[in-house]
């Protein structure tokens, strides 16, 4: 009897010992109110008069000299605990801003962030960073130093957006869109919706780094511009050579780039003249399909593009006669195909001039013609030279599925 009692007590002790690790709680927890959650960062070249305002946090004159680099300015958007709206906005705290904008300067991104930490009581946290806005002036000089810090920081998510601003990046951060109280969340949602609407290819920070690391491809990023201080529009697509921005595609050119890449969801519209008539029609792409073949032609690599777009006619101008004429839709389709082919030729000419293979043709050559690649190319720098003279054959077809119906 006594032995059974001891055995019972021993079992209870063992059970409690097994449960103990699950009942101790989170010893290393950090409350959200005790850290500064950064939602977005804007990066600009500092203005000349900001040199005198630099803090000596990470360097000391004459002992720990600063790097011989021009200062950059960062503007951080920090969430204010308790003010982030979780539902419909109430009247009591509607005037309180949910974010706090703080600016500082530094010789590098890490230097500027450490200077910023010197001004903020709570520890800076980048786990909720959604948007990184970089001015085109910084982007044209190169993003190598910025990406070095971001790739080393484990808190930075690879699904964050890096965006180029047409002008100062801080102006984008200071904009006040009416549909969202937090500008960075509005900007992030705008990019996500642009992807789903077929207006822009997916271009997360991680995808930018992945393209930068490939031997036969160059990265790209969206370009935005502030309109009337309240709203922001996607004004183009910046393409790079390595980490340096070398050019920009216009919005409609983005649609044709997406056609080359075979991104299914259509989204852009274009006015097209009606053959044999004075008017024009607005043609909207519904879907895109593409095939990229890499072949050897007389010992040299050649790319063959097969692009097909399905489209609708969504509007016609006043001078356009009936669209029910026999063969007219076929003529309009041919006109769209010719203009699309010429647009892609222009995009290729621009990117080839700058040695920026944003199409990833080099990856197709590397995968499908490995002997040629390993013998004649081998490196990314050699592919950039080869891409400038690459022969690309374009086959572009269009099918118009719907012409719509006018009611009344």
From TrEMBL:
Entries under Gene3D superfamilies matching the protein: Nutrient germinant receptor protein C, domain 3
Mode of membrane association: Lipid-anchor
Leader sequence residues: none
Main location group: membrane
Domain Spore germination protein N-terminal: 28-226
One Gene Ontology cellular component: membrane
Protein name from the UniProt record: Germination protein, GerC family
Provenance organism: Brevibacillus borstelensis AK1
